[in-house]
Amino acid sequence: MSAPSSIKETNAPADARYECQDCNRGFSSSSKLQSHCSKHMSVLRTRFGSVVLDFQVTSSNHVLCRCGDMYDAEAFMLNHKHRCLPCIEEAASMRLRSESAQRAVAEKKDLSVDVSVALPPSSPAPPAVQIRVLRPRSGAISRENPLKKIGLLVHESTGLLICLFCQRVLTAQDIRRHYESGRKYALGKPHPKPDREDINAAFHYLRANPIKVNTIAKAKKWVGSLRGKAIPRVAFLPVYAVNKCGVCGYISDDKGTMSSHINSNHRGYSQSQVWTTALAQKLFSQMIAKYIEVCDH
Q1: Fewer CB within 10 A of the end CB, N or C, for the chain?
Q2: Which helix (H) or strand (E) covers residue 181, if one does?
Q3: Alpha carbons 169 and 225: distance in angstroms, whole number
Q4: Over the stretch 240-254, which tens digit does the pLDDT of each residue have?
Q5: CA 25, 29, 31: angle at the middle one, nearest 5?
Q6: Separation CA 228–CA 288 (nearest Å)
Q7: Hey, where are the domains in the chain?
Q8: Could you read off the pLDDT of 63-84 as tens digits, one per residue?
């Protein structure tokens, strides 16, 4: 992609060989030009789940991404930001650091206990004694989240376990098989294979901290309960426009399939009465559900 303002050699004197295309000012070196270009940039703030990241935007409305490339602002918001692993990983890291800091603050809070010594009525009461008691917490030693170490993230709004490489929802019982199958992730590169100790640590962590969908059977039951309902979308995954049945909530990306569904299951309705559109994401493998309807809140 091009730089914020492209470097352009001109016929100007040697001390102005590089020209800013935004203001036509000349500079003697490319580094001075790059420093100057920051003055033409504004900031785009966009949300990744509960985390907000800032991105520089040039006067030509191009966004400078964490991956080092530049994208048209509209294309960045609609497509690239949902697939950019550096952005997704930075947002996940910031959220985990924030949660760690909040836990540390909670652990430092003291409980004040007033203790008074029983004395005869004639004796003056002593001043109250403040005893500092540490707040008890489960898991006295705080360690790094083992899910993050192997590229997993629990989505805050839905409680779903997501592989950042495949960009798919996993069940807890799927973790070992998932990493040992050598599958490809969304960008077409080899899926990293963590050490077995790290995989086991994540597996045991999820047994101690159960998630909403921890078995395939529960995943299918949960998906079935969503028919006609939308869940909060996962901010870093792509969103698709799909066809939706207004009677039962069935969704499909194929018009022929939707037409057959309405004719077979909802006789007496015209297609124009019940055929609507919705937003959806590909969260699970197709053996569970190809699409899940989502919303922005």
Answers
A1: C
A2: none
A3: 17
A4: 889 998 888 888 888
A5: 95
A6: 16
A7: 14-86, 147-218, 227-295
A8: 777 776 777 888 888 878 777 8
